Fold:
Amino acid sequence: MGKQSSEYFQEAKKLFPGGVNSPVRAFKAVGGQPLFIESGSGSRLRDVDGNTYIDYVLSWGPLVLGHAVDSVQSAVREAVNLGSSFGAPSPRELALGQELQRRLPFLEKMRFVNSGTEATMSAIRLARAVTGRENIIKFEGCYHGHSDSFLIGAGSGVASLGLADSAGLPAALIPETLVLPYNDSEAVKAIFQHHASEIAGVIVEAVAGNMGLIPADRAFLETIALLCEEHSSLFIVDEVMTGFRAAYGGACELYQLQPDLVCLGKVIGGGFPVAAFGGKACYMDQIAPLGPVYQAGTLSGNPIAMAAGLATLLGLGVNAFAEMEARTTRLCQGIQGLAKKYQLPVQVQWRGSMFSLFFADKPVQNFKDAQSANYEQFANFHQLLLTKGIYWAPSQYESNFLSLAHTDRDIEQTLQVIEEVFRKIGGRVWES
Ligand code: KE4
Structure:
Protein backbone atom coordinates (compact mmCIF):
# COMPACT_ATOMS: atom_id res chain seq x y z
CA MET A 1 0.00 0.00 0.00
CA GLY A 2 1.60 3.23 -1.14
CA LYS A 3 1.99 6.28 1.06
CA GLN A 4 -0.20 8.57 -1.06
CA SER A 5 -3.03 6.03 -1.34
CA SER A 6 -2.92 5.57 2.40
CA GLU A 7 -3.12 9.31 3.03
CA TYR A 8 -6.03 9.67 0.60
CA PHE A 9 -7.77 6.75 2.30
CA GLN A 10 -7.46 8.35 5.75
CA GLU A 11 -9.06 11.52 4.38
CA ALA A 12 -11.72 9.60 2.46
CA LYS A 13 -12.81 7.75 5.59
CA LYS A 14 -13.71 11.10 7.14
CA LEU A 15 -16.06 11.82 4.23
CA PHE A 16 -17.44 8.54 2.91
CA PRO A 17 -18.65 5.47 4.85
CA GLY A 18 -15.68 3.08 4.79
CA GLY A 19 -13.80 5.60 2.67
CA VAL A 20 -15.49 4.50 -0.53
CA ASN A 21 -18.49 5.24 -2.72
CA SER A 22 -19.33 1.60 -3.32
CA PRO A 23 -18.68 -1.13 -0.72
CA VAL A 24 -16.82 -3.66 -2.88
CA ARG A 25 -14.10 -1.07 -3.49
CA ALA A 26 -13.12 -1.10 0.18
CA PHE A 27 -11.07 -4.32 -0.06
CA LYS A 28 -12.81 -5.38 3.18
CA ALA A 29 -13.22 -8.92 1.93
CA VAL A 30 -9.54 -9.42 1.06
CA GLY A 31 -7.83 -7.26 3.68
CA GLY A 32 -5.52 -4.36 3.08
CA GLN A 33 -6.67 -0.96 1.92
CA PRO A 34 -7.99 0.21 -1.44
CA LEU A 35 -5.60 1.82 -3.88
CA PHE A 36 -6.43 5.31 -5.07
CA ILE A 37 -6.22 5.30 -8.84
CA GLU A 38 -4.65 8.14 -10.77
CA SER A 39 -5.29 6.96 -14.33
CA GLY A 40 -6.00 4.09 -16.66
CA SER A 41 -4.61 3.33 -20.08
CA GLY A 42 -5.40 0.25 -22.18
CA SER A 43 -5.14 -2.78 -19.90
CA ARG A 44 -3.33 -0.85 -17.16
CA LEU A 45 -4.15 1.13 -14.04
CA ARG A 46 -1.76 3.55 -12.36
CA ASP A 47 -2.24 4.35 -8.68
CA VAL A 48 -1.43 7.66 -7.01
CA ASP A 49 1.95 6.29 -5.90
CA GLY A 50 2.96 5.58 -9.49
CA ASN A 51 2.52 1.80 -9.31
CA THR A 52 1.01 0.20 -12.40
CA TYR A 53 -1.17 -2.90 -12.60
CA ILE A 54 -2.67 -5.14 -15.22
CA ASP A 55 -6.34 -4.44 -14.56
CA TYR A 56 -8.86 -7.33 -14.56
CA VAL A 57 -11.61 -5.34 -12.81
CA LEU A 58 -12.09 -2.77 -15.62
CA SER A 59 -14.50 -0.73 -13.50
CA TRP A 60 -16.45 -3.99 -12.77
CA GLY A 61 -16.97 -4.76 -16.44
CA PRO A 62 -17.78 -1.62 -18.48
CA LEU A 63 -14.35 -1.07 -20.07
CA VAL A 64 -14.51 -3.85 -22.63
CA LEU A 65 -12.23 -1.88 -25.00
CA GLY A 66 -9.83 -0.95 -22.20
CA HIS A 67 -9.04 2.31 -20.38
CA ALA A 68 -8.94 5.69 -22.16
CA VAL A 69 -9.40 4.22 -25.62
CA ASP A 70 -9.05 6.84 -28.38
CA SER A 71 -12.35 6.03 -30.11
CA VAL A 72 -14.34 6.46 -26.90
CA GLN A 73 -12.39 9.49 -25.70
CA SER A 74 -12.84 11.33 -28.99
CA ALA A 75 -16.56 10.49 -29.14
CA VAL A 76 -16.94 11.91 -25.63
CA ARG A 77 -14.90 15.03 -26.46
CA GLU A 78 -17.03 15.68 -29.55
CA ALA A 79 -20.25 15.24 -27.56
CA VAL A 80 -19.20 17.30 -24.56
CA ASN A 81 -18.25 20.24 -26.81
CA LEU A 82 -21.94 20.41 -27.77
CA GLY A 83 -23.19 20.52 -24.18
CA SER A 84 -23.43 18.12 -21.26
CA SER A 85 -27.15 17.46 -20.89
CA PHE A 86 -30.37 18.75 -22.41
CA GLY A 87 -33.14 17.05 -20.45
CA ALA A 88 -34.68 16.46 -23.84
CA PRO A 89 -34.48 13.74 -26.50
CA SER A 90 -31.29 13.79 -28.56
CA PRO A 91 -30.10 11.96 -31.69
CA ARG A 92 -27.41 10.21 -29.64
CA GLU A 93 -29.89 8.21 -27.57
CA LEU A 94 -31.57 7.12 -30.77
CA ALA A 95 -28.22 6.02 -32.21
CA LEU A 96 -27.33 3.89 -29.19
CA GLY A 97 -30.84 2.46 -28.94
CA GLN A 98 -30.79 1.47 -32.61
CA GLU A 99 -27.37 -0.17 -32.23
CA LEU A 100 -28.63 -2.14 -29.23
CA GLN A 101 -31.72 -3.27 -31.12
CA ARG A 102 -29.59 -4.25 -34.11
CA ARG A 103 -27.54 -6.52 -31.85
CA LEU A 104 -30.42 -7.72 -29.67
CA PRO A 105 -33.53 -7.95 -31.90
CA PHE A 106 -35.76 -9.05 -28.98
CA LEU A 107 -35.33 -5.53 -27.65
CA GLU A 108 -38.54 -4.34 -29.33
CA LYS A 109 -38.57 -1.28 -27.05
CA MET A 110 -36.26 -0.03 -24.32
CA ARG A 111 -35.73 2.77 -21.80
CA PHE A 112 -32.33 4.19 -20.84
CA VAL A 113 -31.54 4.72 -17.17
CA ASN A 114 -28.38 5.60 -15.24
CA SER A 115 -27.55 2.39 -13.39
CA GLY A 116 -28.20 -1.31 -13.38
CA THR A 117 -30.11 -0.81 -10.14
CA GLU A 118 -32.56 1.49 -11.89
CA ALA A 119 -32.90 -0.94 -14.79
CA THR A 120 -33.78 -3.96 -12.66
CA MET A 121 -35.94 -1.95 -10.24
CA SER A 122 -37.96 -0.63 -13.19
CA ALA A 123 -38.20 -4.07 -14.81
CA ILE A 124 -39.82 -5.64 -11.75
CA ARG A 125 -42.16 -2.68 -11.27
CA LEU A 126 -43.27 -3.26 -14.84
CA ALA A 127 -43.65 -7.01 -14.23
CA ARG A 128 -45.82 -6.34 -11.17
CA ALA A 129 -47.93 -3.87 -13.13
CA VAL A 130 -48.56 -6.03 -16.19
CA THR A 131 -49.34 -9.16 -14.17
CA GLY A 132 -51.11 -7.55 -11.22
CA ARG A 133 -49.05 -9.85 -9.01
CA GLU A 134 -46.58 -9.07 -6.17
CA ASN A 135 -43.99 -11.82 -5.87
CA ILE A 136 -40.61 -11.79 -7.60
CA ILE A 137 -38.30 -14.80 -7.76
CA LYS A 138 -34.55 -14.23 -7.59
CA PHE A 139 -31.70 -16.62 -6.87
CA GLU A 140 -29.26 -16.91 -3.97
CA GLY A 141 -26.00 -15.15 -4.74
CA CYS A 142 -27.35 -13.22 -7.69
CA TYR A 143 -27.06 -9.46 -7.41
CA HIS A 144 -29.39 -7.13 -9.25
CA GLY A 145 -28.40 -3.79 -7.71
CA HIS A 146 -29.38 -2.25 -4.41
CA SER A 147 -33.13 -1.57 -4.66
CA ASP A 148 -35.05 -2.99 -1.69
CA SER A 149 -36.57 -5.98 -3.48
CA PHE A 150 -33.18 -7.35 -4.43
CA LEU A 151 -31.18 -7.03 -1.20
CA ILE A 152 -32.38 -10.43 -0.04
CA GLY A 153 -30.03 -13.36 -0.57
CA ALA A 154 -27.89 -11.10 -2.73
CA GLY A 155 -24.36 -11.64 -4.00
CA SER A 156 -21.60 -9.14 -4.81
CA GLY A 157 -20.89 -6.68 -2.02
CA VAL A 158 -23.75 -7.96 0.15
CA ALA A 159 -22.19 -11.43 0.19
CA SER A 160 -18.63 -10.09 0.41
CA LEU A 161 -19.53 -8.28 3.62
CA GLY A 162 -21.32 -11.35 4.98
CA LEU A 163 -24.64 -9.46 5.17
CA ALA A 164 -27.42 -12.03 4.87
CA ASP A 165 -29.72 -9.23 3.72
CA SER A 166 -29.46 -5.47 3.97
CA ALA A 167 -30.76 -3.66 7.02
CA GLY A 168 -33.52 -1.15 6.38
CA LEU A 169 -35.74 -3.27 4.13
CA PRO A 170 -39.49 -2.72 4.72
CA ALA A 171 -40.75 -5.83 6.54
CA ALA A 172 -43.78 -5.96 4.26
CA LEU A 173 -41.57 -6.17 1.18
CA ILE A 174 -39.30 -9.04 2.20
CA PRO A 175 -41.85 -11.86 1.68
CA GLU A 176 -42.53 -10.53 -1.83
CA THR A 177 -39.06 -11.64 -2.92
CA LEU A 178 -38.80 -15.41 -3.12
CA VAL A 179 -35.15 -16.56 -3.09
CA LEU A 180 -34.27 -19.94 -4.58
CA PRO A 181 -30.97 -21.81 -5.00
CA TYR A 182 -29.25 -21.06 -8.31
CA ASN A 183 -29.24 -23.88 -10.86
CA ASP A 184 -32.02 -25.68 -9.00
CA SER A 185 -34.79 -26.48 -11.51
CA GLU A 186 -36.76 -28.53 -8.98
CA ALA A 187 -36.99 -25.56 -6.61
CA VAL A 188 -38.37 -23.40 -9.43
CA LYS A 189 -40.95 -26.07 -10.34
CA ALA A 190 -42.01 -26.45 -6.71
CA ILE A 191 -42.56 -22.75 -6.12
CA PHE A 192 -44.60 -22.37 -9.30
CA GLN A 193 -46.64 -25.40 -8.29
CA HIS A 194 -47.75 -23.64 -5.11
CA HIS A 195 -47.54 -19.93 -5.93
CA ALA A 196 -47.82 -19.54 -9.72
CA SER A 197 -50.76 -17.12 -9.47
CA GLU A 198 -48.73 -14.76 -7.26
CA ILE A 199 -45.50 -14.63 -9.28
CA ALA A 200 -45.04 -11.42 -11.27
CA GLY A 201 -41.67 -12.39 -12.64
CA VAL A 202 -38.43 -14.31 -12.33
CA ILE A 203 -35.17 -12.40 -12.63
CA VAL A 204 -31.90 -14.25 -13.21
CA GLU A 205 -28.29 -13.71 -14.19
CA ALA A 206 -27.99 -16.33 -16.93
CA VAL A 207 -24.27 -16.40 -16.17
CA ALA A 208 -24.02 -15.48 -12.51
CA GLY A 209 -21.18 -13.03 -11.94
CA ASN A 210 -21.88 -11.89 -8.39
CA MET A 211 -20.95 -14.99 -6.44
CA GLY A 212 -17.87 -15.47 -8.53
CA LEU A 213 -18.65 -16.70 -12.03
CA ILE A 214 -21.18 -19.56 -12.15
CA PRO A 215 -22.74 -20.41 -15.52
CA ALA A 216 -26.37 -21.52 -15.41
CA ASP A 217 -27.32 -25.02 -16.47
CA ARG A 218 -29.26 -24.76 -19.70
CA ALA A 219 -32.10 -26.87 -18.25
CA PHE A 220 -32.41 -24.46 -15.32
CA LEU A 221 -32.97 -21.48 -17.64
CA GLU A 222 -35.31 -23.48 -19.88
CA THR A 223 -37.38 -24.45 -16.84
CA ILE A 224 -37.70 -20.80 -15.81
CA ALA A 225 -38.64 -19.72 -19.33
CA LEU A 226 -41.22 -22.49 -19.72
CA LEU A 227 -42.88 -21.90 -16.34
CA CYS A 228 -43.02 -18.15 -16.90
CA GLU A 229 -44.65 -18.76 -20.27
CA GLU A 230 -47.10 -21.28 -18.82
CA HIS A 231 -48.15 -19.06 -15.89
CA SER A 232 -47.87 -15.63 -17.57
CA SER A 233 -45.09 -14.48 -15.26
CA LEU A 234 -42.39 -12.33 -16.85
CA PHE A 235 -39.01 -13.90 -17.62
CA ILE A 236 -36.41 -11.21 -16.90
CA VAL A 237 -32.74 -11.75 -17.72
CA ASP A 238 -30.33 -9.43 -15.95
CA GLU A 239 -27.52 -8.82 -18.45
CA VAL A 240 -26.10 -5.77 -16.70
CA MET A 241 -22.82 -7.66 -16.29
CA THR A 242 -23.09 -10.38 -18.95
CA GLY A 243 -24.29 -8.13 -21.78
CA PHE A 244 -21.66 -8.15 -24.54
CA ARG A 245 -19.41 -10.00 -22.06
CA ALA A 246 -20.59 -13.60 -21.66
CA ALA A 247 -20.80 -13.79 -25.45
CA TYR A 248 -20.89 -11.33 -28.33
CA GLY A 249 -24.68 -11.16 -27.93
CA GLY A 250 -24.56 -11.66 -24.18
CA ALA A 251 -25.92 -14.55 -22.18
CA CYS A 252 -29.15 -14.48 -24.19
CA GLU A 253 -27.14 -15.45 -27.25
CA LEU A 254 -25.14 -18.04 -25.31
CA TYR A 255 -28.32 -19.80 -24.20
CA GLN A 256 -30.62 -18.72 -27.07
CA LEU A 257 -32.97 -17.00 -24.64
CA GLN A 258 -35.93 -14.83 -25.66
CA PRO A 259 -36.78 -13.11 -22.36
CA ASP A 260 -39.81 -10.91 -21.84
CA LEU A 261 -37.54 -8.21 -20.42
CA VAL A 262 -33.77 -7.79 -20.29
CA CYS A 263 -31.67 -5.40 -18.20
CA LEU A 264 -28.41 -4.01 -19.57
CA GLY A 265 -25.66 -1.77 -18.18
CA LYS A 266 -21.88 -1.47 -17.78
CA VAL A 267 -20.54 -2.13 -21.34
CA ILE A 268 -23.37 -0.12 -22.96
CA GLY A 269 -22.07 3.00 -21.23
CA GLY A 270 -18.37 2.33 -21.86
CA GLY A 271 -17.51 3.63 -18.39
CA PHE A 272 -20.25 6.28 -18.25
CA PRO A 273 -23.50 5.89 -16.25
CA VAL A 274 -25.74 4.08 -18.73
CA ALA A 275 -28.10 1.16 -18.24
CA ALA A 276 -31.33 0.11 -19.86
CA PHE A 277 -34.29 -2.18 -19.55
CA GLY A 278 -36.36 -3.35 -22.49
CA GLY A 279 -37.97 -6.20 -24.32
CA LYS A 280 -41.45 -6.95 -25.61
CA ALA A 281 -43.26 -3.83 -26.78
CA CYS A 282 -46.56 -5.07 -25.31
CA TYR A 283 -44.95 -4.69 -21.88
CA MET A 284 -42.70 -1.67 -22.49
CA ASP A 285 -45.69 0.30 -23.83
CA GLN A 286 -47.04 0.21 -20.26
CA ILE A 287 -44.23 2.58 -19.25
CA ALA A 288 -45.10 6.30 -18.86
CA PRO A 289 -45.87 8.48 -20.69
CA LEU A 290 -47.56 5.81 -22.83
CA GLY A 291 -48.82 3.64 -20.00
CA PRO A 292 -49.46 3.76 -16.25
CA VAL A 293 -46.08 2.50 -14.99
CA TYR A 294 -44.08 5.53 -13.95
CA GLN A 295 -40.31 5.55 -14.48
CA ALA A 296 -38.10 8.62 -15.01
CA GLY A 297 -34.60 10.07 -14.71
CA THR A 298 -33.03 13.52 -15.00
CA LEU A 299 -29.95 12.27 -16.82
CA SER A 300 -31.40 9.23 -18.58
CA GLY A 301 -30.09 9.11 -22.15
CA ASN A 302 -27.38 11.64 -21.33
CA PRO A 303 -25.76 12.54 -24.67
CA ILE A 304 -22.15 12.19 -23.44
CA ALA A 305 -22.86 8.79 -21.96
CA MET A 306 -24.71 7.75 -25.11
CA ALA A 307 -21.69 8.73 -27.19
CA ALA A 308 -19.38 6.68 -24.96
CA GLY A 309 -21.70 3.67 -25.12
CA LEU A 310 -22.07 3.78 -28.87
CA ALA A 311 -18.33 4.17 -29.46
CA THR A 312 -17.73 1.20 -27.18
CA LEU A 313 -20.17 -1.06 -28.98
CA LEU A 314 -18.92 0.04 -32.40
CA GLY A 315 -15.42 -0.93 -31.26
CA LEU A 316 -16.60 -4.40 -30.25
CA GLY A 317 -17.04 -6.36 -33.46
CA VAL A 318 -17.57 -10.11 -33.76
CA ASN A 319 -13.93 -10.84 -34.58
CA ALA A 320 -12.62 -8.58 -31.83
CA PHE A 321 -14.89 -10.32 -29.34
CA ALA A 322 -13.72 -13.74 -30.54
CA GLU A 323 -10.09 -12.67 -30.07
CA MET A 324 -10.78 -11.41 -26.55
CA GLU A 325 -12.66 -14.62 -25.73
CA ALA A 326 -9.77 -16.75 -26.98
CA ARG A 327 -7.35 -14.75 -24.83
CA THR A 328 -9.61 -15.21 -21.80
CA THR A 329 -9.68 -18.95 -22.43
CA ARG A 330 -5.88 -19.05 -22.73
CA LEU A 331 -5.53 -17.22 -19.41
CA CYS A 332 -8.05 -19.42 -17.60
CA GLN A 333 -6.72 -22.69 -18.98
CA GLY A 334 -3.23 -21.49 -18.08
CA ILE A 335 -4.26 -20.84 -14.48
CA GLN A 336 -6.01 -24.21 -14.28
CA GLY A 337 -2.81 -25.87 -15.55
CA LEU A 338 -0.70 -24.10 -12.94
CA ALA A 339 -3.08 -25.12 -10.15
CA LYS A 340 -2.68 -28.71 -11.25
CA LYS A 341 1.11 -28.37 -11.38
CA TYR A 342 1.22 -27.03 -7.81
CA GLN A 343 -1.51 -29.42 -6.64
CA LEU A 344 -3.78 -26.60 -5.51
CA PRO A 345 -7.56 -27.26 -5.53
CA VAL A 346 -8.55 -24.33 -7.73
CA GLN A 347 -11.61 -23.96 -9.97
CA VAL A 348 -11.35 -21.40 -12.76
CA GLN A 349 -14.75 -20.68 -14.32
CA TRP A 350 -15.28 -18.47 -17.31
CA ARG A 351 -17.61 -17.50 -20.16
CA GLY A 352 -16.69 -15.09 -22.95
CA SER A 353 -14.48 -12.38 -21.45
CA MET A 354 -15.47 -12.80 -17.81
CA PHE A 355 -13.93 -15.21 -15.33
CA SER A 356 -13.29 -15.99 -11.70
CA LEU A 357 -11.23 -18.33 -9.55
CA PHE A 358 -12.32 -20.33 -6.49
CA PHE A 359 -10.08 -22.17 -4.06
CA ALA A 360 -12.32 -25.23 -4.13
CA ASP A 361 -11.83 -28.86 -5.07
CA LYS A 362 -14.90 -29.22 -7.30
CA PRO A 363 -16.79 -27.03 -9.80
CA VAL A 364 -18.81 -24.27 -8.12
CA GLN A 365 -22.46 -24.51 -9.19
CA ASN A 366 -24.37 -22.39 -6.70
CA PHE A 367 -23.96 -19.90 -3.87
CA LYS A 368 -23.49 -22.57 -1.19
CA ASP A 369 -20.60 -24.05 -3.20
CA ALA A 370 -19.11 -20.56 -3.51
CA GLN A 371 -19.46 -19.99 0.23
CA SER A 372 -17.59 -23.20 0.98
CA ALA A 373 -14.58 -22.20 -1.12
CA ASN A 374 -11.46 -21.29 0.85
CA TYR A 375 -11.85 -17.56 1.35
CA GLU A 376 -8.67 -17.02 3.36
CA GLN A 377 -6.67 -18.56 0.52
CA PHE A 378 -8.43 -16.27 -1.94
CA ALA A 379 -7.58 -13.19 0.17
CA ASN A 380 -3.96 -14.33 0.31
CA PHE A 381 -3.94 -14.89 -3.46
CA HIS A 382 -5.42 -11.45 -4.07
CA GLN A 383 -2.90 -9.65 -1.88
CA LEU A 384 0.08 -11.45 -3.42
CA LEU A 385 -1.15 -10.66 -6.93
CA LEU A 386 -1.56 -7.01 -6.04
CA THR A 387 2.02 -6.74 -4.74
CA LYS A 388 3.15 -8.20 -8.08
CA GLY A 389 1.18 -5.77 -10.24
CA ILE A 390 -2.02 -7.69 -10.95
CA TYR A 391 -5.27 -5.95 -10.06
CA TRP A 392 -7.74 -8.80 -9.43
CA ALA A 393 -11.36 -8.28 -8.24
CA PRO A 394 -11.12 -7.79 -4.43
CA SER A 395 -13.74 -10.39 -3.57
CA GLN A 396 -14.39 -14.07 -4.14
CA TYR A 397 -17.96 -13.07 -5.01
CA GLU A 398 -17.02 -11.01 -8.04
CA SER A 399 -15.99 -11.67 -11.62
CA ASN A 400 -12.92 -10.51 -13.44
CA PHE A 401 -12.89 -9.19 -16.97
CA LEU A 402 -10.64 -8.96 -19.98
CA SER A 403 -10.63 -6.11 -22.51
CA LEU A 404 -9.62 -5.78 -26.14
CA ALA A 405 -6.58 -3.91 -24.84
CA HIS A 406 -5.22 -6.94 -22.94
CA THR A 407 -2.36 -8.41 -24.97
CA ASP A 408 -0.82 -11.87 -25.14
CA ARG A 409 2.11 -10.33 -23.24
CA ASP A 410 -0.30 -9.30 -20.45
CA ILE A 411 -1.57 -12.88 -20.29
CA GLU A 412 1.96 -14.31 -20.19
CA GLN A 413 2.96 -11.84 -17.48
CA THR A 414 -0.15 -12.65 -15.45
CA LEU A 415 0.50 -16.38 -15.70
CA GLN A 416 4.11 -15.86 -14.61
CA VAL A 417 2.92 -13.95 -11.54
CA ILE A 418 0.26 -16.53 -10.74
CA GLU A 419 2.87 -19.28 -11.00
CA GLU A 420 5.04 -17.42 -8.48
CA VAL A 421 2.03 -17.03 -6.20
CA PHE A 422 0.94 -20.65 -6.53
CA ARG A 423 4.52 -21.77 -5.84
CA LYS A 424 4.51 -19.59 -2.74
CA ILE A 425 1.19 -20.92 -1.43
CA GLY A 426 1.35 -24.36 -3.03
CA GLY A 427 2.71 -27.40 -1.20
CA ARG A 428 1.15 -26.23 2.03
CA VAL A 429 -0.92 -28.69 4.00
CA TRP A 430 -4.31 -27.94 2.52
CA GLU A 431 -6.81 -26.73 5.21
CA SER A 432 -10.03 -26.86 3.24
P1 KE4 B 1 -25.30 -0.75 -10.78
O1 KE4 B 1 -26.49 -0.16 -10.04
O2 KE4 B 1 -24.10 -0.97 -9.86
O3 KE4 B 1 -24.95 0.05 -12.04
O4 KE4 B 1 -25.71 -2.17 -11.35
C1 KE4 B 1 -26.28 -3.10 -10.46
C2 KE4 B 1 -26.12 -4.50 -11.02
C3 KE4 B 1 -27.22 -5.15 -11.56
N1 KE4 B 1 -27.13 -6.40 -12.07
C4 KE4 B 1 -25.94 -7.05 -12.09
C5 KE4 B 1 -25.88 -8.43 -12.67
C6 KE4 B 1 -24.77 -6.44 -11.57
O5 KE4 B 1 -23.59 -7.11 -11.59
C7 KE4 B 1 -24.85 -5.14 -11.03
C8 KE4 B 1 -23.65 -4.43 -10.44
N2 KE4 B 1 -22.44 -5.17 -10.32
C9 KE4 B 1 -21.53 -4.76 -9.28
C10 KE4 B 1 -20.32 -5.69 -9.33
N3 KE4 B 1 -20.69 -7.02 -9.06
C11 KE4 B 1 -21.14 -3.33 -9.40
C12 KE4 B 1 -19.94 -2.92 -8.58
C13 KE4 B 1 -20.35 -2.19 -7.35
O6 KE4 B 1 -21.38 -2.53 -6.72
O7 KE4 B 1 -19.57 -1.26 -6.98
Remarks:
- The radius of gyration is 21 Å.
